Amino acid sequence: MSGWDQYITNLTSQGITHAGIFGADGSRWAASPNFPNIDNIRDELPKAFSSSPSGILVNGEKYIFIRSAENFAILRKSADGMVVVKLNQAYIVSIGVNQKPEMIIGATSKMGEYLKNCGF
User: CA 93 to CA 20: how far, in whole Å?
Assistant: First the structure.
């Protein structure tokens, strides 16, 4: 178990179905079991923070961009929500199956703020 796994456990213990922390280069720092595949993750995650975001492909299905702030983006696919938090060196991705994004943004943003303050 890596040191990053404790952050994933924290998020999933708060009801988030899948959680992952990925380096800006697309490397996987930690992820919950069965975390869905994000094709070409290095290119997909920054799309949520581009000037004209449209969505992110997860397991070949598109999560549509809903809204963003300076360091987080909210996306949705049917009844599933996704929150991406941008850190200095990485991204936190939380996916809630049958959960609205608003239900998972609090925990994900709080963790993102903590890790960002730690220099990540």
Answer: 5
Distance, CA of 113 to chain centre: 13
Closest CA to 4 of 118, 97, 105, 82: 118
Task: List the strands of the sheet with 18-23, edge to edge.
Answer: 28-31, 18-23, 90-96, 80-86, 72-77, 61-68, 55-58
How does 88-98 read in b/e, with b if 16+ C-beta sit within 10 Å?
eebbbbbbbee
Ordered by start, the domain boundaries in the chain are 5-117
Q: pLDDT per residue over 16-49, tens digit each?
A: 999 999 999 999 999 999 999 998 899 889 988 8
> Residue 1 — very low, low, confident or very high, per pLDDT cuts 50/70/90?
very low
Token duo for residue 69 = 């702030």
pTM for the model stands at 0.93
According to CATH, the topology of domain 5-117 is Beta-Lactamase (3.30.450)
Check: CB of residue 108 under 8 Å from CB of residue 72.
yes
